Amino acid sequence: MDPLDDIFAAMRVRSALYARLEAGAPWGVSLAGGESARFGLVVRGGCLLEVEGMAQPVALAAGDCYVLAHGTPYILRDHPNTPTVSCASVVRDRIGGLVELGGTGTAASVICGWFHFDQRAARPLLDLLPVLLHVKMEQARALALQGTLQLLAMETGEPGLGSSLLVSRLADIVFVQAVRAHVAANAESQTGWLAALADARIGPALRAMHKEIAHDWTVEALAAVANLSRSAFAQRFRERVGQAPLEYLTQWRMFKAGNMLGQGNAALGAIAAAVGYESEAAFSKAFKRSKGMAPSAWRAAAREGAVAA
């Protein structure tokens, strides 16, 4: 199993909002920070993206997609000196529809969206993503993403039976498409966990752990998968991932167990076995040490929406 697949399988978008900006120079709009992730696709023309905390603006051209998974405040505008208006003041009751903005100069069209994740399931991936995912789409991938966004527009603009479910699933797809494209386009220049997935030695070890999470892994066994000595593997893994190998494995076991506890009625013993523990007692001890509460308490809190990650 690809580690990204493992995460995406557990993630869910709880709600999504959408609008299409049709702007003419001079124009500018500012979006406040919040818990929701933000995404955008430039359909026509171009603009500048200014993200809080980033020193330089990013030039966006037609076909470019951006995702701000952490809800960071940002600005879109045609020129660095153009004044901006708040998104809330221009969108208002036009969520799911067309928002006209600016003057009569050079035109730009940007599809913007906001979505709220199930924070408990999404936290592991969100914590690993950079502030900005900027994807310069080749034509085929840009068209695929535009198609998804158009479907999202239809469902948010004219709700029908099952629209809430469809909107959540379409927003899932938008996010997956953007992350996948970002990883493919930046594999050589990235650092951190996403780069570790592409590492010729560490990547296979990560995939092995995700594929067989219940296996009795040792550092020696993982080093063999990576075709490195034990010490070289441990050092390289920590440098790439930021954690020791078995610390990472435990984290993912607890993540998987937490999802199983919150999403179904599986017996505690079955969950323990599924994530590599021979007894309920050993699993419960490890889970409480990791999450700060017993598995039974976690299950009850998860069902009430009271736990995070």
TrEMBL record:
Domain annotation HTH araC/xylS-type: ranges: 203-301
Specify the domain of life of the species encoding this protein. Bacteria
Mind telling me which Gene3D superfamilies this protein's record contains?
Homeodomain-like
Q: Which PROSITE patterns is this protein grouped with? A: HTH_ARAC_FAMILY_2
Q: Which residues form a coiled coil?
A: none
Keywords of the record, alphabetical order, are: DNA-binding, Transcription, Transcription regulation
UniProt-recorded Gene Ontology molecular function terms? DNA-binding transcription factor activity; sequence-specific DNA binding
InterPro entries cross-referenced by the UniProt entry: AraC_lig (IPR032783), AraC_XylS_family_regulators (IPR050204), Homeodomain-like_sf (IPR009057), HTH_AraC (IPR018060)
What's this protein's name? AraC-like DNA-binding protein
What species is this protein from?
Variovorax guangxiensis
